[in-house]
Amino acid sequence: MERHVLSYKNIFLKTLTGKAAIMGGLAFRHNLNPVRFDFTLDSLYYVDCYLFSIYVAKDELDETQIENSIWAIGFYLGEVIARHSPKGYQWKNWEDYFPYQSTKVQEAYFETMGTSAILVRGKRSFILPIDQVIRFIKKGPENSLHRFALSEIENIKGRNLKADSLLYD
Q1: What's the number of domains the chain is made of?
Q2: Domain ranges, residue 57
Q3: pTM for the whole thing?
Q4: pLDDT above 60 (res 163)
């Protein structure tokens, strides 16, 4: 699915909001509350909790459901960041962006699931929301999506947004 994965972005987002279903389903789909996916920064606290349940049980879960969850949450994370950032972001497939970058950048970001769809801002600035979801599932909550989004938006706005430290600190 990595090729032209952006053509599936809307179906993954609709799956999270309960308006569609993706073949193979999502991990712990029965535990998801579609109302919580409202594209606010605070909704990422809920998403972090959801990903924690996948992180804890990943060895017992269906691989297709984990991958579908990565795609869905990665697209969701990217959309939250794009909607709360003052600078315009544009989704791009790996093959529409990295081949036009320097050799050094191409070597650092070869095509993987985590780099197959990226958010680009300007000519040389990009973020990897799908890769951040993979990091959370592999390494745990120190890879919080809420913190990732706040950090990115903070960088762009050039001012300090305060994270609610009650959940993680």
Answers
A1: 1
A2: 5-157
A3: 0.89
A4: no
